[in-house]
Amino acid sequence: MRSMTYALATLSILATAATAFAQQPCTPDLNGDGIVNAEDLTILIADWGVTYPATIETISPDSGPAGGGTLITITGTNLAGTSAVLVGGFPATNIFVLSPTTVTAVTPPGSAGPAVVSVVTPAGTVALPGGFTYEKEQTPWATVLEVAPNPAIVTNAALRAAIVATGLPWRVRDNASNVEMLLVPPGTFNMGCSPSQQGPCVPDENPVHAVTLTAPFYLGRYEVTQAQWQGVMGSNPSNFTGFSDSASRPVERVSWNMVQQFLSATGLRLPTEAEWEYSCRAGTTTAFNNASNTDSTLGTIAWYILNSGSQTHAVGQKAANALGFSDMSGNVWEWCQDWYSSSYYSVSPSTNPPGPASGNLKVFRGGSWLATSSPCRSSYRAAGASATSTQDNGGFRAARSP
Length: 402
Fold this sequence. Notes:
- This protein is an alpha+beta fold.
- 16% of the residues lie in helices and 25% in strands.
- It has three domains: 2-46, no CATH class; 55-135, Immunoglobulin-like (Sandwich), CATH 2.60.40.10; 142-400, paralog of FGE (formylglycine-generating enzyme) (Alpha-Beta Complex), CATH 3.90.1580.
């Protein structure tokens, strides 16, 4: 009774206002007959508390890997009360209502092919048949560990979005070598000279030039370990053996030529020099990939001459960069695929540079447990003969194209 009295009073006030301002549309006239009366009250009461159905207009992206993990954005109407999103009948995760017209969610695992996307609201469930298509996984050579990038590991939001946009799983384990690998998305960066406070650039780091990598690739989360090398090659050339954690330390005393044997046996490859620097920087433009130009901060990310105790250390103990890669500075030097030329940056193509066509030396990067801080800079270049082992401070990190 109180609600009806309130409704009548409301209509009365609105009617008075409409009369006073006759030149304006008669808002209380709910049935459009030009009169505010009991018929309008009936409409008001019938409509009291009604929640209007939601609609789905678009889903972006509209496809992703069958392993799930794709961040999708759903647009439509009346989505403010969304309580659940289902894809192929299974609940999505990480649901966020951004506005009455926009909801985001992360897809669950599903079967390859089109799937129905359903949104649950207070007014009911609205569905869009075929709103999302699950793609067959494209990594038969690996075991998928995580499809979507973990924000606690891939801390750069732009890089996370770029990884998701590839439609490929983020974290995998190579079946032939047991090497854990992370996906590096395409992108553009400035390659070359990044001096630190104590380490100026050397001539072969110039000129700084923009480089675009057009295709995603996988790169080892850590340097290849002694255990992984021995598992493939059947022997261990390393110097730092006999420790309780030797199996988890990087393999060393391996030449570029020796590494080719490991890669041939597993189907892996070395990163190009441009891929290595792009992965090392992980969105940074500073001397070190911890977003710092200060040499005294290097110890947070690297084992080098001031903290290594004159030996290698088990991989993954230092802080990772914004893509999730550990030990890209220090521990052991890492071979790259490229021939070395001190003047290559002057003629390097801006897209997918492959390195010189020939040469006498091969590039290695990243510094080592024996290096001072300057060689651990993201832009520092070094080189050695392909048959040279770089002694007990040289190893490698494996890559693979999807």
